[in-house]
Amino acid sequence: MREDGLRELLAAVAEGELSLDAACERLRELPYADLGSAKLDLHRELRSGAPEAIFARGKSDRDLAAIVARMIDDAGRVLVTRVTPEQATLLSARHQGADYDDVARVWSVGRFDAGDWCLGLLSAGTADLPVAEEAAVCGAWLGAKVDRHYDVGIAGVHRLLDRLAEIRRASVLIVAAGMDGALPTLVAGLVAAPVIAVPTSVGYGASFDGLAALLTMLNACSPGVAVVNIDNGYGAASLAHRIQGC
Amino acid sequence: MREDGLRELLAAVAEGELSLDAACERLRELPYADLGSAKLDLHRELRSGAPEAIFARGKSDRDLAAIVARMIDDAGRVLVTRVTPEQATLLSARHQGADYDDVARVWSVGRFDAGDWCLGLLSAGTADLPVAEEAAVCGAWLGAKVDRHYDVGIAGVHRLLDRLAEIRRASVLIVAAGMDGALPTLVAGLVAAPVIAVPTSVGYGASFDGLAALLTMLNACSPGVAVVNIDNGYGAASLAHRIQGC
Amino acid sequence: MREDGLRELLAAVAEGELSLDAACERLRELPYADLGSAKLDLHRELRSGAPEAIFARGKSDRDLAAIVARMIDDAGRVLVTRVTPEQATLLSARHQGADYDDVARVWSVGRFDAGDWCLGLLSAGTADLPVAEEAAVCGAWLGAKVDRHYDVGIAGVHRLLDRLAEIRRASVLIVAAGMDGALPTLVAGLVAAPVIAVPTSVGYGASFDGLAALLTMLNACSPGVAVVNIDNGYGAASLAHRIQGC
Amino acid sequence: MREDGLRELLAAVAEGELSLDAACERLRELPYADLGSAKLDLHRELRSGAPEAIFARGKSDRDLAAIVARMIDDAGRVLVTRVTPEQATLLSARHQGADYDDVARVWSVGRFDAGDWCLGLLSAGTADLPVAEEAAVCGAWLGAKVDRHYDVGIAGVHRLLDRLAEIRRASVLIVAAGMDGALPTLVAGLVAAPVIAVPTSVGYGASFDGLAALLTMLNACSPGVAVVNIDNGYGAASLAHRIQGC
Amino acid sequence: MREDGLRELLAAVAEGELSLDAACERLRELPYADLGSAKLDLHRELRSGAPEAIFARGKSDRDLAAIVARMIDDAGRVLVTRVTPEQATLLSARHQGADYDDVARVWSVGRFDAGDWCLGLLSAGTADLPVAEEAAVCGAWLGAKVDRHYDVGIAGVHRLLDRLAEIRRASVLIVAAGMDGALPTLVAGLVAAPVIAVPTSVGYGASFDGLAALLTMLNACSPGVAVVNIDNGYGAASLAHRIQGC
Amino acid sequence: MREDGLRELLAAVAEGELSLDAACERLRELPYADLGSAKLDLHRELRSGAPEAIFARGKSDRDLAAIVARMIDDAGRVLVTRVTPEQATLLSARHQGADYDDVARVWSVGRFDAGDWCLGLLSAGTADLPVAEEAAVCGAWLGAKVDRHYDVGIAGVHRLLDRLAEIRRASVLIVAAGMDGALPTLVAGLVAAPVIAVPTSVGYGASFDGLAALLTMLNACSPGVAVVNIDNGYGAASLAHRIQGC
Amino acid sequence: MREDGLRELLAAVAEGELSLDAACERLRELPYADLGSAKLDLHRELRSGAPEAIFARGKSDRDLAAIVARMIDDAGRVLVTRVTPEQATLLSARHQGADYDDVARVWSVGRFDAGDWCLGLLSAGTADLPVAEEAAVCGAWLGAKVDRHYDVGIAGVHRLLDRLAEIRRASVLIVAAGMDGALPTLVAGLVAAPVIAVPTSVGYGASFDGLAALLTMLNACSPGVAVVNIDNGYGAASLAHRIQGC
Amino acid sequence: MREDGLRELLAAVAEGELSLDAACERLRELPYADLGSAKLDLHRELRSGAPEAIFARGKSDRDLAAIVARMIDDAGRVLVTRVTPEQATLLSARHQGADYDDVARVWSVGRFDAGDWCLGLLSAGTADLPVAEEAAVCGAWLGAKVDRHYDVGIAGVHRLLDRLAEIRRASVLIVAAGMDGALPTLVAGLVAAPVIAVPTSVGYGASFDGLAALLTMLNACSPGVAVVNIDNGYGAASLAHRIQGC
Predict the structure, then answer these.
(1) Residue D34: which H helix or E strand, with range?
(2) Distance CA E7, CA E23 (A)
(3) CA contacts within 13 A on the Cβ side of F230
(4) Of residues F126, F127, F205, nearest to B210 (C-beta)
(5) What is the dihedral of CA B73, B75, B77, B78, to 10 degrees?
């Protein structure tokens, strides 16, 4: 709102439709709700196309509950990530119609209207599932039709090649991989859609908690690979949502 | 071609329209041209929407000339990155209608038809220009209308805010930044378009040749930021091209 | 005392006011109290403007109690950081008028006289609170009037801009941020006061326990940013105290 | 200007003293000068107390000359860092009354009025001189009286102790050290002034171009140490200037 | 199967022996079994000489049981690594003739026929045993006769020299070492067989969880050293199996 | 010789066939030639199957010439790696029948008898050629028939798949790859032969001079991948030679 | 024994005093006791001046008990490090006259005769005590008279200077320090004795578990500093023992 | 002088033998010579047993000449390291009886009287020579008899074992090694003398300029290994000198 509305705001002030104090107040009050230690960015949806998601880890029960309630009041929907089963139980007791996925660790109320875009989700191994599912569930909440293709890593490349036609139907692809993190390069060489690579902290020894996969993806030989943070399934889904909307 | 055409190829063989030897030969011969030490991926455009770009650094004059000639023969256009002025002179002597940009270090013949998409290019400082211009020139070659907003880093945030309305007109944004690499986070919080963050190796001391900026971007607090490799302007443009086409 | 008093000490010896043995003894005895495994630096306040704070983590109950008691005996006040609730209970049972803040994890008796300086505390997110509060509570103990502005990270830059006038009232600013650590750069570009940046270990994946934020802050594009160790709220407050006193 | 003047600007618009277009224009035009690839932040001095310094490395002669000329036109003074002798010759030919220090690699025209503050400059070894001198020359330009104490590293601690009384006269201290980077800890334990630690890339082997010294300083056992980037003498001086002004 | 059989498949289609749909189906169906979140690579043995091993860590009981059962159904044997005692009890209750080694943490049913090759297993210390035993047990399952020589690190080089004649009898050697990781270099200088070096995460301080040993091995002064991932005993055995079969 | 011959040596001493002094002398003199600063390991071939290769980089002309001459005198053949054209000219002037390959940077006299083993050499890109050719030329010198398959990286996976039948003919494979280093994983999933992965320092930005490729290879999802040091083509060939001989 | 006794062994064989088989057997049997998974290096004391110490961490109760018993049988004394209280209770129940120090985590039986050397132990803070005490207790076991000077870090340098005369009495110094690790540099500049620096994993944030202190010590500006591994108190004592004996 | 002489100085003042001003002056003037940017630590020899060595790299000709002249004036001897041939020519023209070693890059005048200690110098390869020779030449200057054993790395362990008797004659050993850095561990397991390990930056790829060797040495399985900085031959010699004197 801030910039786009500035001229209008000035115009309203110039024409006397808005008092000086009201204008200042509006500039201050509108964009967020101040809950003390948190300032909810209620207008993020207007600015950047998707509302602020809530990251549950490390939040006290009281703070979490207050934030979630305020978001639902304001927008009628909310997406919360990294939610423990205990946190989910607490929240579900207070809000009707909530969904909780314990693999993806995502709790939500409401969702975006289903769009006409298809989000393809690939994982290299079965151990990448929690991250891939976080991306899948968040993507679905943001309106995507989600196609899953799991355990198609390049150690057995035929598993991927056999599904290529289906994979090519997606308008955006999210590829989660740990260990050597090589799957996104291969995929990006076979499809025309943008590929969002999510390194996972899966592996042991010199995988260094996802660093090896992260470096692999940044150095992908195929152009057209977008990299997000290690284990950041939500970030990948959010990027996919931006991409389909552009 | 490989997967999509497999059924058709099989059908042609089954119907006797294609001999067995011819089918095997076609599977082998079609997708690339074998120049000895290089195998040009001529069908990458069919598979992934953009032709293979040539990375000039470290290639001998003879190899570079041969590869470029073959690409032009095959596709009528070619994009070559990291081209020294000497290499550019060599290539331009052999091909008519070539373009060379010595800031972006990009040499090209032909280009994609202009599309109806706008690529916004932002840089945090003036030292990020070579990387930003590589992205800009490659983006233009791939059909984008390119809007440049340089030297709008967050140390003087008003320079960015004043241009926000223009920046919001772009369908995809590429943001190049070195040193603290903080600009993409700020931009992604203000616009709805996908933001492609390119860390640059600009800075000194603990910037560690772009590592600091890279980590900043991967940890961007705003969702919707796609990260590519350090100084990889071409990769950013290529990703933007995929995104607008999805 | 060591250097400043040397001439006076020598003078006293020369004039026979102080015996040789007494002089040597005084040189040895004065500056600290030897508790066996700990040597309390009682004169640090004289030398460096603030008394030695006690870092409670890893200390045995007996050692901690002895050190705290000795400091209170000597100076009438003490500041203890990283105090668990159990340690706090133990200490509070032995000393009257103690304060304990379980978010900041700070226990104290007494404090500095309130000064006429204002310490501004900013945090990028709510997860940075424990570190920010450690800085805030220590700053208040050192005599500052503390203004808090939490959850004003650059992903929603309007939350910061709306509070800019208040923020500018502080004579020193402490900015705690994890993840991309970009907030101090932005703040330092908007205010004239010195900005003390505290990276926090908040984040996941490639934040590497605060390393990403640390590097961002060291590479801040705005000059005038002072960086302290990861999660070191006390160090930031102590630096702020020095700065206001210079 | 942005925030502080917003209410005044709005008031002027409300009272009809300023047209809507003029207001928008002023918001856009005032704070910087657009030189194409560079946007000079002319109002940084108003916002943050010191004008934008120019970093000469990597700039073309033409760009550098244009930026310097514009800064002098606007403010009557300019500070340029990391200037090669060739660049200095070029600039000095165009501007009268310029100063160039080839150890500090700093070129300047004009300067701040001399203040009443004393900046103490310490270096651990003689090899740290270029960094220490960059800090010293920039500090003097910003109005400080500069006291130098070089080659006082802790391998021969008496060299430092003998100068302690003088060192204590400074209101702010900048301590440059490479190799083990231990000097700032020692100094901060002996003085009450804030200590700005500048790691230098001096050393060999496991000094890793200043990383070892940087880590030492971040982990300084004495509180009250502010760390800036490796070799960043200008940043240290700029921070010192902010500190004395707070 | 994919490539080798392609010509035969095409031939069968051309001669009408295989319908088009059947050919496509066979291409899709043959190589793996789709268990939902896992796609078992049943033909890996045909392609790469050894069946896919199952990595138990992080798998749910249900998924693990299903995968193991499917592998036994298909191949009559299975090798599972990183199996906890609880997982082993669960699996052994469902399958007869199972073996479980709680040092190696390996569970298996069936095994390869004993070959005529000898695998020499060396460890530098006793703490490397779990990794060395994982390699030994997996090697035995793959048909090797295994000779163990443990605790023969170079701090007491006579322990190794005294056993040299026996060590030389092995056709392939696996050498597990943590801390300084120097044993493989020494061994490779004394024998003609290929040496597979496995860094272990044994050590403390600057061993950095095996990184020091890994770097030592990669820099081995003796040529002929093959390095695998930290603690990856199974990978070493699998590589040994490939080597003896070539 | 040391260990194997010990019993024989002792027997000869016991039977009076060898004097005590002669025995001691023989133990000292046999295994190497002492050239002052170098001690040529003349018996390495007996112990480990291949003679010591000479690493030319950093050696003075005089030392290099002396070492090469001594090796040729002793064994009739020598392999020298990382040889500059100048060094090659110097050496070739002194020895007849020498070979020099300026891409591989390998100089040699004589060679092993051709064996009946086939070494497959793959590279991901054309920039990996110098490393791949070092491996190829050294492999040929050690008796291998060498098959080259260059520029078959996974960004265009059909280039690899089309050559799979030929690739499978090799008894050992060396795969050189920089950037994302993903090719060895893919290859190891498709063939039964051991795969020696050589990371190359090809790439830019976050490839960190081959570190990214190295980590990828260590974390290869396909078992049976042996990793050697970055750019170490000779080491890979030497390992291949050991493997085929086991 | 190996090398020194070789000539004597050969002589005994030559003179018929020792049979061939007996000689071979002796070469094999003497230097260590084979307990299955462990090979005790019983002659290390002859070779390197001190017996092998036992590292208890990660050893099973059964293995630990067997190793300790064998060492006591053979040498009449043993030193065991990193011993938990549970392990200590177990061992003390089996052996009379045992000592256990629960701060140093060292268990021992017997000890070296008291030598005439003095080992000075310094620690920077109280949190370094466990490491410093491991060094102190091991040093005492190896015959040293131990002088302790704890909590003398450079943040309060007078604590060190006041004790300098005593510190100079030691023939070898061990200095344990975490955080900035600067104490050894200072000490080495003030004394003539060799200084063994032990980085400790004490600190938080950017101390990176002792890495910062390790780098500081390796880069010590004072020559004459010997560095050992992080937290390796035993290694420091063992090095001190070697030094005093040379 | 500082501490030891304090009592005497005080006594002299107390007895009126020394005026107050003279005492202060003496405290300030004695220990070093102030040459402007350098403060020569002339009394280091009294404090720490060896005079300050001069590190020539990066010093201007004028500064270097002044420092060297002052040291010779004061002590009659000087040791200068990392001296280029040009610097050596310059210095030798001004001082008689100078020595310069162009492999060790050491220039000196005078030296310590020959002591009765033997310094053993080992290197793993010929490429480690410059570092080993710096240690050897500095050791000889400090009075040692130096025994050299070069190119005795563990890839051909018999080269070391054959020289063991000689190596054991040294009272202190310096072992220089790059690449895998494994030699010091092996040596420390075979001798009783203290072993000073110097990692060298020799190697390529994952040796990371000596980091791999450094980590190996810090993790040496044999106790009694002292580690110094990468390539720091002078530091090793200086430590050896301290050790023999203790």
Answers:
(1) strand D33-34
(2) 12
(3) 27
(4) F205
(5) -90
CA–CA dist G177, E36 (Å, integer): 54
Please name the residues in contact with D17: beta carbons below 8 A apart, sequence gap of 6 or more: none
Q: Shortest Cα distance from A151 to chain E (angstroms)?
A: 5
D7–A16 CB contact, under 8 Å = no
Q: How far apart are CA B9 and CA B22, in angstroms?
A: 10
Which of G221, G222, G225, G229 to mutate: most D Cβ within 10 Å?
G221
Q: Which one-letter amino acid corresponds to residue C111? A: R
Alpha carbon distance D20, F176 (integer Å): 65
Nearest to residue H240, comparing CAs of H180, H182, H193? Answer: H193
Q: Which SS3 state, helix, strand or coil, does residue G57 take?
A: coil
Query: How far apart (Å, rounded) are the C-alpha atoms in residues E23 and D3?
Result: 71
* A positions 157-176 inside 8 Å of B (CB): 161, 164-165, 168, 171-172
Task: Quote the minimal CA–CA distance from B89 to chain A in Å.
Answer: 27
CB of D220 within 8 A of CB of C230? no
Contact E203, H216 (CB under 8 A): no
Q: Cβ contact (<8 Å) for H217 and E180?
A: yes
CA–CA distance, G123 with G128 (Å, rounded to integer) = 6
C-alpha distances out from residue E197 to B149, E120, E184, E204, F212, Å: 53, 12, 6, 20, 20
Share of chain H above pLDDT 70, in %: 83
Q: Judge whether C30 is closer than 8 Å to chain H, CB to CB.
A: no
Question: What is the mean predicted confidence (pLDDT) over F134-146?
Answer: 97
Q: What H or E segment, with its residue span, contains residue F47?
A: helix F44-48
Say whether H2 and D155 touch across the interface (CB within 8 A): no
Backbone angles phi, psi at B241, to 5 degrees: -65, -40
Phi-psi region of E117 (alpha: psi -120 to 50; beta: other; left: phi over 0): beta
Burial of H95 (0-12, 13-18, 19+ CB in 10 A): middle
Number of C-beta neighbours around residue C8 at 10 A? 11
Measured distance CA(D238)–CA(D140) in Å, rounded:
11
Residue H204, pLDDT > 90, answer no
Q: Are strands D106-109 and D118-123 parallel, antiparallel or unpaired?
A: unpaired
pTM here? 0.88
ipTM at complex level:
0.85
- Burial environment of residue G168 by CB neighbours within 10 A (0 to 12, 13 to 18, 19 or more): middle
Name the DSSP class of G223.
S
The one-letter code for the residue type at C219 is N
Instruction: Report, in this order, helix, strand and coil percent for chain B, each rounded to 5.
Output: 45, 15, 40
In chain F, helix, strand, coil percent, each to 5?
Answer: 45, 15, 40
How far separated are the first and last CA of chain C, in Å rounded? 19
F88 in Cβ contact with F99 (< 8 Å): no
| CA dihedral of B223, B226, B227, B233, whole degrees rounded to 10 | -140
- Cβ of B127 within 8 Å of Cβ of D58? The answer is yes
- How many angstroms away from the CA of D104 is the closest CA of chain B? 16
Residue G145 has phi, psi (to 5 degrees) of: -85, 125
Residue D219 φ/ψ, nearest 5 degrees: -100, 15
Q: Which two tokens stand for residue C156?
A: 């929603």
Q: Select the more confidently predicted residue: G206 or H131.
A: H131
Tokens read off for D189: 């334990």
- Chain C residues with CB under 8 Å of G207 CB are 229
The answer to whether F119 touches F170, Cβ cutoff 8 Å, is yes
CA neighbor of D243 nearest in space, from D218, D219, D226: D226
Read off the pLDDT of residues C169-185 as tens digits, 9 standing for 90 and up: 999 999 999 999 999 99
A203 touches chain F (CB under 8 A): yes
Amino acid at H153: G
